[in-house]
């Protein structure tokens, strides 16, 4: 799941996440794009209902503007994604940078955040499977 807002950053995050998934020998069944991070929960909800989806990696960059709008977007999105993960008992990793982040910070976080988002989804999925046996 990728946000198109701040696409210069998020498109690079997607490439890194795909590269990491390939290294980890993961199968990506769906790559979905939404206008912004705030728009992710409805698509994540639909994905988590699918039998061939074990988890979702979200990728986005919420860059600070002149108001606190970035904080509102980040907090509401994180809360909604967490609630969906719990509801469906499938991991939804938060590869969304921000709030309070300047553009230069977003570029610096592309690789580490995208890689960790993939790794986190896999680790949580593995742990869920282990304890549900």
Automatic annotation (TrEMBL):
Catalytic activity: (2S)-2-hydroxy-3-oxobutyl phosphate + 5-amino-6-(D-ribitylamino)uracil = 6,7-dimethyl-8-(1-D-ribityl)lumazine + phosphate + 2 H2O + H(+)
Enzyme type, top EC level: transferase
Pathway assigned to this chain's UniProt record: Cofactor biosynthesis; riboflavin biosynthesis; riboflavin from 2-hydroxy-3-oxobutyl phosphate and 5-amino-6-(D-ribitylamino)uracil: step 1/2
One of the GO BP terms on file: riboflavin biosynthetic process
EC number: 2.5.1.78
GO cellular component, one term: riboflavin synthase complex
Domain of life of the native organism: Archaea
InterPro entries: LS (IPR034964), LS/RS (IPR002180), LS/RS_sf (IPR036467)
Keywords for the protein's UniProt record, in alphabetical order: Ligase, Riboflavin biosynthesis, Transferase
Gene Ontology molecular-function annotations: 6,7-dimethyl-8-ribityllumazine synthase activity; ligase activity
Family as reported in the entry's similarity comment: Belongs to the DMRL synthase family.
Name the UniProt record assigns to this protein: 6,7-dimethyl-8-ribityllumazine synthase
């Amino acid at each position: 799941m990728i946000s198109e807002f701040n696409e210069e950053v998020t498109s690079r995050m997607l490439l890194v996440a795909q590269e990491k998934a390939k290294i980890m020998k993961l199968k990506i069944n769906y790559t979905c794009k939404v206008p912004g991070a705030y728009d992710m929960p409805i698509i994540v909800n639909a994905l988590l209902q699918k039998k061939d989806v074990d988890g979702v990696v979200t990728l986005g960059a919420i860059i600070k503007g002149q108001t606190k709008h970035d904080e509102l977007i980040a907090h509401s999105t994180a809360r909604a994604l967490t609630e969906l993960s719990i509801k469906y008992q499938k991991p939804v990793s938060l590869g969304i940078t921000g709030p309070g982040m300047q553009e230069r910070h977003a570029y610096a976080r592309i690789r580490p955040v995208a890689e960790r988002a993939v790794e986190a989804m896999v680790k949580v999925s593995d742990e869920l499977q282990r304890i549900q046996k």
